[in-house]
Amino acid sequence: MADVLPPITKLKRVALDLLFPPWCIGCGREGKYICSSCQQQLPLISPPICLKCGRPLTIDNTCPGCIEGPIEIDGIRSPFLFQGMIRKAIHELKYRNLKAITPLLASFLYSYLKDNPLPGNTLVPVPIHKKRLNERGFNQSSLLSRELGRMSRLPVIEDCLKRQTHTPPQVRTSSAAERRKNIADAFTCINKQLEGKQVILIDDVSTSGATLNTCAGVLKTAGAASVWGLVLALEI
User: Fold this and answer.
1) 150 to 6, 9, 168: CA distances (angstroms)
2) Phi, psi angles (nearest 5°) of residue 34
3) Which of 152, 119, 128 minimizes the C-alpha distance to 204?
4) 19 pLDDT exceeds 90?
5) Which residue(s) pair with 123 in the sheet?
6) Residue 211 scores a pLDDT above 60
7) Who contacts 22 (Cβ-Cβ below 8 Å, separation ≥6)?
8) How many CB atoms lie within 10 A of CB 177?
9) Cβ contact 80:205 at 8 Å
10) CA-CA distance, 207 to 85, in Å (whole number)?
11) Average pLDDT over residues 45-51
12) What dotted CATH number matches 44-234?
């Protein structure tokens, strides 16, 4: 992977690594937050997959859930299943404030995007509600988007898509229909920055695809030419 970080940023990271060496969240080995050995155990998604939601299938086609529901998003892709080491890594980021793991996680997205190009010229993180942002102190999707933007040299727009209602996390709802209802009207587009753009929505985890699909509908109504979703992990 090309080293595209600014020199000052790289120096800061070297200094921090010397003071606080990264440790592997899997085996505890010093050096990386996920060491090379543990990276071999990451739960990769392999074809065939659903052409819409990106979930594994027995044949390359569209899964029944995507055929039934209204689909606004052009497609969702992800390198991993939400289990094992990648699940732990995302939890370390979101719930233990391990923001230093973000560059490594974003590098997985960057590698996937290089191997599986998506039509897109603009990155947009899925926003979280102000209440949750105040509680957590950051939006993990924004952190991933900024790092991915640096690596890919794609622009990141964060002040267009807004979450206007505070809803329960999707993992706490029981069915796909309930998740769609839970997220309906939760987002709005507050300006026309994305008019005519090919957007790649960035998120950490997709449970049912309802959040990404709702965001895609809002962005297309605001004039986006296409909207794809790229997430770190899919929950099956």
Assistant:
1) 9, 11, 31
2) -135, 110
3) 128
4) no
5) 156, 200
6) yes
7) 30, 31, 32, 33, 100
8) 13
9) no
10) 17
11) 93
12) 3.40.50.2020
